[in-house]
Specification:
single chain, alpha/beta, Aspartate Aminotransferase, domain 1, Aspartate Aminotransferase, domain 2, 7-stranded mixed β-sheet, 11 helices, 13 strands, globular
Amino acid sequence: MIYLDNAATGGFKPASVQNAVLASMKACANPGRSGHKLSLACAERILACRNLLSDLFGGYGYERVIFTKNCTEALNIALLGTLNEGDHVITTCLEHNSVLRPLFALQKAGRISLSVAPLRDGKLRAEDIVSLARSNTALAVVTTASNVTGECPDLKRIRALLPERVRLVADGAQGGGHLALSLRDMGLDALALAGHKGLHAIQGAGALLLSERFSPRPVLYGGTGSESFNPDMPEFYPDRLESGTLSYPAIVSLFEGALFARTHRERGAETLRSLTSLLRKALDGLPNYRAYFSPNDCGIAAFAHKCIPSEELAGILSERFGIAVRGGLHCAPLVHRALGTFPDGLVRASFSSFQSKKEVDALVSALARIG
């Protein structure tokens, strides 16, 4: 099968990631829970990953790198653990349900008010986000890259235009590993990451990086291996937000995947921009198709057929041509409303930096045969 669903989860893992996971299965103890040598060795690997992620993403030290099972959990911690009664939040129509659903739940419960920045001329503009700020605005939550169009909002400009008191949270599910993201340089207060996409880790690896002024409350309670005498969660990070046993295999895969991404990010981004550019040009030459993306560094390419619904077209590509893509709304309903593609959605092909022109050619050939 030709795997073009990398925006959902990366289909190929570097050898270093595979080897690290296999090794962790042969010698795996509970990091931070015991004092024996194997437990301490695992804890050292965990610490190394925290340090690497902090360095790679311009963070504020290992203490402010929180491990989660995915980006959704990281975003829930950032939002549910920070917002207070009466707060106002700004988000955008590009967001994934991992941002929208927690915010809609808080809004429905009457705890917060919410404003959603629209698209203008098909683009998300920093000025439109900032114009929504109120005196009680606590957070702005913005994606690093749309999982439908591949658009990458200018987070640094958004930060510069926002009032200083408004904290900026970034969803790095699609941008992590593909884009040059830095909490310090971009003025981010929190960055949520999905390890299993552009960071080449296995599923179950996620992280939340925090600035020094962003300190969420716990949303999960339990053992941490520290202050076991204390009936409350520890006050210090990362323990305050990490209840229960960490997934050691997932974290060591994230360490190796992040190392790989650090070395290969720029070249990988060039590859993905080239592949999406090739596909865009080809789609523009096929009369029954319409593209909803521009060339981008995250490898995302969504399109529609004039007559065939998106999920049906995705099924045809899978069954007849052995090409894996995703049809539907991609857990991002508001961007489809903005694009006029709701409720049918779009077909999304998403490339890996390990792929080449031959995958584009195979997809274009299949689409042309479908007509």
